[in-house]
Inverse folding.
């Protein structure tokens, strides 16, 4: 098995893992997390690879699906499948297209947060009232609570999967 095939398989597996794990273990593998912490309580809102929000403990604070993330999740799954097909057919073009599609998923998340399009992004954007605050990775303290938000492990798995899919596609 050649280098391109191995890298493409790893990229496709990471892409699918970034979606599946974000549903199974949202605290650790979500694409974006927002946590509210005080001395006794941690409440988290986790954006999965398909644009749904898992709240722990359960809450109805965010009611809509983030459409760009839903499309991005579909692209990650579709790109992973195309990478696998590219491996079996040994086609550089399919491998490259699969890697690009995988990478588009995380790019759509970033686009949503930059343009503040989804209800989740609007909710996090509220904290921009603090000068110098960053929508992607920051925290603020409003006593008695500390608010944390950041891109999380599932996002970076998706980006890594896309990059590996592109590298593997070129090397097929």
């Amino acid at each position: 098995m050649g280098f391109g095939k191995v890298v493409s398989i790893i990229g496709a597996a990471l892409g699918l893992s970034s979606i599946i794990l974000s549903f199974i273990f949202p605290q650790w593998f979500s694409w974006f997390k927002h946590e509210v912490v005080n001395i006794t309580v941690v409440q988290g809102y986790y954006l999965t690879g398909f644009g749904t929000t898992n709240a722990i403990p359960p809450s109805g604070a965010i009611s809509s699906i983030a459409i760009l993330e839903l499309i991005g999740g579909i692209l990650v799954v579709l790109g992973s499948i195309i990478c696998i097909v590219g491996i079996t057919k040994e086609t550089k073009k399919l491998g490259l297209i699969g890697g690009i599609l995988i990478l588009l998923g995380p790019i759509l998340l970033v686009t949503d947060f930059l343009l503040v399009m989804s209800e989740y992004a609007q909710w996090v954007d509220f904290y921009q009232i603090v000068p110098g605050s960053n929508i992607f990775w920051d925290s603020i303290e409003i006593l008695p609570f500390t608010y944390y938000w950041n891109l999380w492990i599932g996002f970076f798995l998706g980006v890594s999967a896309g990059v590996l899919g592109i590298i593997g596609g070129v090397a097929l």
About this structure: Helices lie at 3-24, 26-29, 67-89, 92-115, 119-125, 153-171. The chain has a mean pLDDT of 89. Residues 139 and 148 are 4 Å apart (CA to CA). Residues 3-171 form a domain with the Butyryl-CoA Dehydrogenase, subunit A; domain 3 fold (CATH 1.20.140).
